[in-house]
Amino acid sequence: MTTVLNTKRGSAALARSSVRTLLFVLKARAFFVLLALLVLFCILAPSFLTANNLAILSKHVAISAILAIGMTFVVLTGGIDLSVGSLAGLGGMVAGYLLTQGILIAGVVHYPPVAGVIFITLAVCLIVGLLNGWLVARAGVAPFIATLGTLYIARGAALLISNGKTFPNLAGQSLRGNKGFPLLGQSSFLGIPLPVWIMLCLFALAWLVAVKTPLGRHIYAVGGNERAARLAGIRVPRVKVFTYAASSVCAALVGLIIASQLEAAHPATGESFELNAIAAVVLGGTSLMGGRGSIPGSLIGAFVIGVLSDGLVMLGVSEFWQMVIKGTVIVLAVAVDQLQSRLQSKFLPYLQSASAEVRA
Amino acid sequence: MMSRSIHRLAIIVVGLLILTVTACHRAEMSKPLIVIIVPSQDNPFFKSEADAAAARAQSLGYRVRIDAHDDDAYRQDNLIDAAIASNAAAIILDNAGADSSIAAVRRATQAGIPCFLIDREIEAEGIAKAQIIADNNQGARIVAEEFVHAIGSGGGDYVELLGRESDTNAQIRTKAFHSLLDKLPSLRLAVGQSANWSQSEAFQKTETMLQAHANIRGIIAGNDTMALGAVAAVKSSGLKDIVITGLDGSPDAIAAIRAGTLRATSLQPAVLIARMAVDEAYKFLHSGSTGKPERQVIPCDLVTSQNVDDFGDFEKLR
Predict the structure, then answer these.
(1) Which tens digit of pLDDT belongs to each residue from A200-253?
(2) B233: distance to nearest CA of chain A, Å?
(3) B136-267 placed in CATH 3.40.50.2300
(4) How far lies B166's CA from each of A293, A299, B119, B172, in Å?
(5) Distance of alpha carbon A184 from its chain centroid, rounded?
(6) Pairing mode, if any, of strands A188-189 and A192-193?
(7) Residue B73: which of B53, B103, B36, B117 has the closest Cα?
(8) Is A358 exposed, middle or buried (0-12, 13-18, 19+ CB in 10 A)?
(9) Which residue is closest to B40 within chain A, CA to CA?
(10) B11-134+269-299: which CATH number, 1.10.10.60, 3.40.50.2300, 3.40.30.10, 3.40.1700.10?
(11) Chain A residues in contact with B261 (beta carbon < 8 A)
């Protein structure tokens, strides 16, 4: 009798643990996809797993990861920021203008030093970010429309700055005291490229904000239930403005990094980058409805996209197939996301009763 | 009360402004209009082409409007309609697709507006009054010859950066490259990838391809923008002695050739072609004929460090 009971209990425990494992695998799916991709490309492309290539790969990932980190905050509040690609283009053009044309003050052309260039670029993009935030939080414009508008405004402004031309030779001149801009995108520290350090620092900062500060909790709360958040005394507009501002600063950094890497600023830079960033955020398990998701998830999502595109380039897969494969991965990831939340709600009572039983 | 008088004042001021502006423009508006439609204005090539056509048309006494269709045949259709509606004397068009532009050109011609095509041809004859194009095939071949010459008899592996693969010019160029390079057994294509004409995309993809393939001796790019992306990638990788060539002859590429980072490019005489088209339009409008065959193919010039000073923005100076 007891043995029968024990085996019954044993099989139930086994089922519970397998359900738990399944849920865990589904929850960390982006991570497993990343591992699978890494293994796959290691086998197929012999030089994939060299330190040098991993450094270059992370440098490429940094571009979409930085955008994705800022985007995560916006998406967590239930919004979306379509303007980041254009803002990256605008940021590069502002930097290019300041480095090659200078600022005209009282009839004299001044060339700001590189730190000044970076500061002004961040400030210009921040203004657009604040505009996004104001439009969404105060003027009541839907995030999709507000940022679609600033997408066009920022791209148009980027084209207007140079009248459509490229700003070449951003290396600066010692005579103007503005040398050193290429260091931002091209230098390395401890063997790791500077853009990757920037990505890591932003990641650490954003993660801290998200999980350790009241602001972070407010962001989740606004996305989870805006009305409840407002009734709980959270200043919803302020939280939203912060998220769009953060996203715009991330976009400005990306623009600066790209301009620095190429030593040239082209006004069409960053076209459709916003889609890569959104894809990374979604792959990382952040819900577009808001309130659910994480910063590490977005970082992993950006790595999945980056590893996929670099790996396929290494294998020499045609551009057209690359697009098909990327799209498939994104759609599958979101489909699995839905499966996970359904499974979770189905098995949650079961798992809870199990843990209650264990306690008893 | 106060607000109403301000309102009235504002209306009067705006009205006066409109009157003065229209008066100033009346003289200008009486001139015949030439509409110039190019793919984009954020690309130095198309910009130089449009500016050259506009300058020549203005010097011949025309009013000019420049539009961009962003390689979108539907947008081009709308722009052609707008040109018909504004009763243009002629259209100078760098079209949005060899097949998808035929209908638009025919509609303009039927509306009595002669079309002069520059830079890209359409797959139909007898509709446009002129099709003046740079010889992409010859331009790609001369640059490929220089590429082979620079790599030397030792040969080796090379990388190809292709333009947007759905684009006719990208196909013509890669075909011309391979008609030459594939004959040489010492040269081996390590990998070919599209970078969609983009500098930042070429930069990232070249970095990755240089990792995947050791001993790359050369990078042949379908245009200058991608070649410059490759130059930046080779620089960041620290590799030396990699031959890089572009195509188009952009000012940035010419500067890079002067600096020694780019080996060669092939200059498309866009400025010359744009001026020729306007001149032929002028002749056609005054005599009813351009006096030239419809299809005119203009050869490209090879630019290397030897002759780099002979070239300006998409034109041969000497």
Answers:
(1) 999 999 999 999 999 999 999 999 999 999 999 999 999 999 999 999 999 999
(2) 8
(3) yes
(4) 38, 33, 17, 11
(5) 19
(6) antiparallel
(7) B103
(8) exposed
(9) A164
(10) 3.40.50.2300
(11) none
| Residue A201, pLDDT score | 96
Q: Residue A18 burial (CB < 10 Å; 0-12/13-18/19+)?
A: exposed
**Do the Cβ atoms of B42 and A262 come within 8 Å?**
no
Residue B103, both tokens: 């209908």
All structural domains of chain B with their residue ranges: 11-134+269-299, 136-267
CB A215 within 8 A of CB A246: no
Q: Looking at the whole model, is its pTM more than 0.80?
A: no
Verify whether the Cβ–Cβ distance A164 to B192 is below 8 Å: no
Three-state DSSP at A35 gives: helix
Let me know: does B48 contact B314? Beta carbons within 8 Å: yes
Tell whether A166 lies on the interface with B, counting CB pairs under 8 A.
yes
User: CA-to-CA distance for B221 and B218, rounded, in angstroms?
Assistant: 10
| Residue range A254-274, pLDDT digits in tens | 999 999 988 888 888 888 899
Rounded-to-10 torsion of CA B38, B43, B47, B50: -10
A102 secondary structure, DSSP code: -
Q: How far apart are CA A188 and CA B17, in angstroms?
A: 58
Instruction: Determine contact: B160 vs chain A, CB below 8 A.
Output: no
Q: Which of A18-32, A125-139, A306-320, B57-71 has the lowest mean pLDDT?
A: A18-32
Assembly ipTM? 0.72
